[in-house]
Amino acid sequence: MNGPIDKDGYTWWGVHWLDRGVWGWSVERYLTSTSGGGSGGSKPSVTFDQAASGNYAAANRTASDINWIIIHTIQGSYEGGISVFNDPDSGVSAHYVVGNSSGQITQMVYDDDISYAAGNYDYNSAGLNFENEGYASESHPDQLYQNLASIVSWACEEYGIPKSHPTGVAPADPADGSGIIGHEQVPDPDNPSVGGGASHHTDPGSGWEWDYFMSLL
Q1: Nearest Cα to 19, choosing from 40, 42, 36?
Q2: Beta-strand (E) ranges in 116-197?
Q3: Does 157 have pLDDT greater than 70?
Q4: In 3-state terms, what secondary structure has residue 195?
Q5: pLDDT tens digit string along 26-35?
Q6: At 27, phi and psi to the nearest 5?
Q7: pTM for this structure?
Q8: CA–CA distance, 192 with 177 (Å, rounded to integer)
């Protein structure tokens, strides 16, 4: 269901035993490929660089727990975003960091764990967070859109998330909706009529071309 991920000198694949509801990771050489598999098809190649342990919550989420894709802008470089999530003092993370160059997709939190990026724990618990290289007020190169679209399209199919972009602030209860939103649409947990999470972030920002990105999915 997930992978491949290279770690500790091995290639790993996430496996879901549907009949038992059990998730786990296995080294490739102990697996046999079949014609079955997850609904999302092949996952794009990613580099795995796990965020510092205090920057995310270990969990055991399944597809039924994940119903939002949340798009962010780093306000800096691809490498800078990875560095922040590796800093144990930052207290933040994202599942994926996406860069401007071909193939720049780094996974920093396993999909079944909870990353800290949305400023709303309920949305972090119900979502996958994607951080894009760049700045909210600036445009992005086509390669970044292509990189992000490849991993988001896979995630939508894998977890049954609609490839749609609702407008306005998302519902106060994440269970009341599903889709692809920006950080600016995540409700403030203390005032759900206001977007941007607790800190009222405005990313991905005015430089983000939603219509173009959605056309790539």
Answers
A1: 36
A2: 127-132, 179-182, 187-188, 191-195
A3: yes
A4: strand
A5: 888 777 655 4
A6: -70, 140
A7: 0.83
A8: 14
